[in-house]
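Newbie here. two chains, one complex. Structure please?
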Amino acid sequence: MPEHFVIIGAGQSGAQAVATLRAEGFEGDITLVGDEPYAPYQRPPLSKAYLMGTMERDRLFLKPDAFYKDARCKLILSLAATAIDRGTKRVTLADGQTLAYDKLLLATGSRVRKIRCPGADLPGIHYLRGIADVDALRAVFEQGKKLAIVGGGYIGLEVAAVAAKRGIDVTVFEAMDRLMARAVSVPISDFYEKVHRAAGVKLVLNTGVEAFEGSGRLQAVRAGGKSHPADVALVGIGIVPNVELAKESGLGCDDGIVVNDRSDVTGDPSIFAAGDCTRHIGREGTALRLECVQNAIDQAKHAAVAMLGKPSVYKEVPWFWSDQYDLKLQIAGLARPTDRLVIRGNPEARKFAVFHLREGAIAAVEAINAAPEYLVGRKLIGEGTKIAPERLADVSIPMKTIA
Amino acid sequence: MAKIKYIEHNGKEHEIDVPSGWSVMEGAVKNLVPGIDADCGGACACATCHVFVDEAWLAKLPKKEDMEETMLDFAPDMAANSRLSCQIKVTPELDGLVVRMPKSQH
């Protein structure tokens, strides 16, 4: 009997794992199980080009159908996995069928965090995670509508940018005192606040949403003690890792499936995990959960190689990006509040970078329309190179020769 | 639609009909042409879809935007005919385009 590897979760990680397993010479059988009706697709364009309508659905798919055929990967779609029996090494799917596995990869991803407040079930309230979500949102995304966005994070702001371009009346409600507070530093938040306001987006900071109001459908959002009229709401208040399957089978979970730094193993030698669903040991030695394409791809590569008996330490530098208006935000590394900030360039010119220095070396970089700063920064983070703050801030020294 | 010839670093050629509106990167990735990673999916965020454009075609391509120019500057083996394939939009005028892949995207 050939070995059978089962991958739960047909997203960025799942697709990458199939590619890596075959590239590394795995000759056994592969089954990829996903609960959406689609083969693995890219999520980043959903809140950008796909919502805008400049990218068709066909172009979202990560791989052509022929890829799975060539890779002899059986795709099981529209079916969730409901249980893992680690004793008999079988996975049960929602229709009752079971799959025997030799190795199992959990790439279950994450789901949107639902808002809990009165009226949260009213028609007209949307979330954004999958193709179906955006199809539903696009159907009501038209000029003349009043859109309320709950949450000033990446998703909320990318949608706000698209909506503003479409001439939709947009208000963003953010509970914290600045935008993208969880993901970026204060200078970046401040910059985006100005950009969004200049584009006509109304920002209501320090204000959580208390309720959704309306009879039969959404008519207003109640926030800060006031009623704000709204026809459509988009809630983007974060994601929750999909750990239930792992947890119920007795694997360690702590806001993420706990994996070690040796290639994503879970404590069960036959079970591995990768992507949004994991809590892993990062390159700085602390446990963390990442929500990004980079981690989905890189962790899947590491996990796939580990499934083939060749574990290695996972120490990639995380990177992220966000497209809003004509601005490309690129981030590498993980900042801490105690880092020393060095700004290079001029925010007024819409082209600058914020470096985060820790013990003399770059720990993170946030770059806006500034690819050299991002790319060199990312490289220096990986190398741990020490660099003087005055030098970093000096734009007369090109990034290529900065270190 | 345009017929694009992708040449792998080892010399293997792939002739692919790529729909107008797609990027040269998508034409490769969606047809299992190896050698282009495109980790970010075409957002000009990762510089892993680097190609060398056949000299005869260089002038016929849409100009590089700043972002592509600077990202490319840091790609391994960057040359005068380097482009990020996610930033080249396919039009019927590109019928016959020839691109070569670098040894590695990382």
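Moderator note: The CA atoms of residues 245 and 309 of chain A lie 24 Å apart. The mean pLDDT of chain A is 95. Thread marked as resolved.
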